[in-house]
């Protein structure tokens, strides 16, 4: 330690107390996590106190919204949504690790994780082999005053290991993604409802067919629209942290869509889905004007609407990268040149130009992104091969910022985290931090994992 540094541990002896906000569950959990890792790093036992206990004199690490934090003049960090942030700040002999924990946020834990990363820790895959905890009997902090805020309001990767993902600053505003209109136990309108309401399902060859194989709903049926809207209102009532609900069409590309006169009169599949989302949003916003309705633009809904339909202010479109994880959308080329007979789409412009047309033509206010990272889905030979996306990621995320994207969902499918962590880790970090150089992020991680072999 240099003169003026705040000494946290010396020769495996704790030199500070850890203080958390009494009655604040997220603060208490973050303080326990900090105490655990500081002991593993330094070998020292750190005393942990609630802020309403008698705390011995000397230096402190203040975790969360403690009384002592506010007594030092630190501003309160609160509000949900759209106010996610945390601070790491040294004030004299105190180190403050504090973030907004309102609603779905866990920013105090993010502050602790960032501090531990700066101390040399790292988390890169499921088991202990991929967890890096340095050993330093003496640990000190220089002057430090930073505020951290995410680039995107919602950051999600569909991976089973939630502990690793929390270390990667994922989370944000709570949001449903993909096919939550029908999919699984959490779906809104189940397939067995066909028996009572066949008119809710697509009409094909003059009759409403039962949902088998590739199928869709009748997205213009007024009763169906009202039912979906009311059930979404119920979800928002039960889950106040939820900010957006997805009403995306079922998979199936161009198959199974409704051929009733009303649906056909709306125009293309994109026109039909935008009409449906608008209709649902109009009902939902009467009781929840701050919530939004979202749907996927991909395959049958990839191209912009054919009519002059405009998006409701509470409707958001999630644009997919058309199942191609290798595509660099900042380059001006057509993703799939010409006509694709499988999904019956004529690709005539770049992905970025297509999205721009979607947004400008429909006056779309909100947009989000679905990233496909399922490299081995198309060919299983890639399952065991490392793949590093490199600075394609940094260019892509810079474009997303320019587009005003608010939410990102990345789907790695069944990829192995121990093989794919460089790709997925850079995606995760780019959702929070302004990463100018993906290769530098990977190299810093490799230094923790492999030392001089980095």
Strand-residue fraction? 15-25%
Instruction: Count helical runs.
Output: 11
Percent of residues in helices: 25-40%
- Average of the residue pLDDT scores: 92
Largest sheet: 8 strands, mixed
Shape descriptor reads elongated
Distance separating the two termini: 27 Å
Task: Please give the radius of gyration in angstroms.
Answer: 25 Å
Q: Give the low-confidence spans.
A: none
For the biggest β-sheet, the strand order reads 13-12-23-22-19-18-17-14
Number of strands: 23
Structural class: alpha/beta
Q: How would you characterize the overall build of this protein?
A:
This protein has 454 residues and is of the alpha/beta class. It is 30% helix and 20% strand. The protein is built from eleven helices and 23 strands. The protein has an eight-stranded mixed beta sheet. Strands 4-3-5-7-6-11 form a six-stranded mixed beta sheet. Helix 1 runs parallel beside helix 3 and helix 5 packs across helix 7. The longest helix has 18 residues. The radius of gyration is 25 Å and the shape is elongated.
Structure summarized in a few sentences:
This protein is of the alpha/beta class. The protein contains 11 helices and 23 strands. The protein has helices at residues 25-42, 67-71, 107-118, 162-167, 222-238, 261-266, 269-284, 351-362, 391-403, 417-432, 438-450; strands at 6-10, 13-14, 16-20, 48-50, 59-63, 86-91, 94-99, 122-123, 131-132, 139-141, 145-148, 154-157, 171-172, 174-175, 203-204, 207-208, 242-246, 292-297, 315-320, 338-340, 345-347, 366-372, 407-411.
């Amino acid at each position: 330690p240099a003169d003026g540094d705040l000494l946290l541990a010396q020769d495996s002896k704790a030199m500070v107390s850890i203080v958390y906000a009494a009655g604040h569950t997220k603060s208490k959990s973050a303080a326990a996590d900090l105490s655990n890792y500081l002991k593993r790093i330094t070998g020292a036992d750190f005393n942990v106190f609630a802020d309403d206990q008698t705390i011995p004199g000397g230096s402190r690490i203040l975790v969360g919204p403690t009384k002592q934090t506010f007594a030092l003049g630190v501003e309160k960090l609160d509000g949900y949504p759209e106010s996610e942030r945390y601070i790491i700040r040294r004030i004299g002999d105190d180190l403050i690790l504090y973030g907004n924990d309102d609603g779905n946020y866990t920013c105090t834990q993010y502050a602790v994780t960032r501090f531990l990363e700066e101390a040399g820790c790292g988390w890169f895959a499921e088991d202990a082999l991929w967890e890096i905890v340095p050993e330093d009997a003496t640990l000190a902090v220089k002057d430090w005053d930073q505020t951290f805020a995410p680039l995107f309001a919602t950051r999600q990767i569909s991976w089973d290991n939630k502990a690793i993902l929390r270390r990667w600053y994922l989370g944000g505003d709570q949001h449903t993604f993909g096919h939550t209109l029908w999919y699984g136990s959490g779906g809104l309108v189940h397939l067995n409802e066909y028996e009572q309401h066949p008119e809710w399902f697509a009409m094909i060859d003059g009759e409403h067919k039962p949902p088998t194989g590739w199928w869709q709903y009748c997205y213009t049926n007024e009763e169906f629209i009202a039912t979906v809207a009311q059930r979404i209102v119920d979800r928002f009532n039960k889950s106040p942290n939820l900010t957006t609900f997805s009403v995306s069409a079922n998979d199936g590309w161009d198959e199974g869509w409704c051929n009733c006169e009303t649906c056909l009169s709306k125009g293309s599949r994109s026109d039909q889905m935008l009409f449906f989302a608008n209709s649902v949003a109009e009902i939902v916003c009467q009781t929840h004007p701050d919530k939004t309705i979202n749907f996927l633009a991909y395959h049958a809904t990839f191209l912009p609407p054919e009519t002059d339909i405009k998006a409701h202010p509470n409707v958001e479109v999630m644009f997919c990268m058309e199942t191609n994880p290798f595509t660099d959308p900042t380059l001006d080329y057509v993703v799939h040149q010409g006509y694709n007979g499988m999904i019956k789409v004529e690709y005539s412009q770049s992905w970025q130009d297509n999205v721009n047309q979607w947004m400008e033509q429909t006056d779309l206010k909100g947009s989000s992104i679905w990233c496909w990272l399922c490299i081995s889905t198309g060919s299983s030979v890639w399952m065991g091969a490392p793949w590093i996306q490199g600075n394609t990621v940094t260019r892509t995320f810079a474009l997303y910022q320019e587009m005003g994207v608010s939410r990102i969902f990345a789907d790695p499918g069944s990829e192995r985290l121990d093989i794919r962590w460089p790709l997925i880790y850079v995606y995760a970090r780019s959702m929070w931090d302004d990463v100018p150089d993906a290769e530098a992020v990977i190299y810093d991680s490799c230094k923790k994992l492999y030392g001089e072999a980095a």
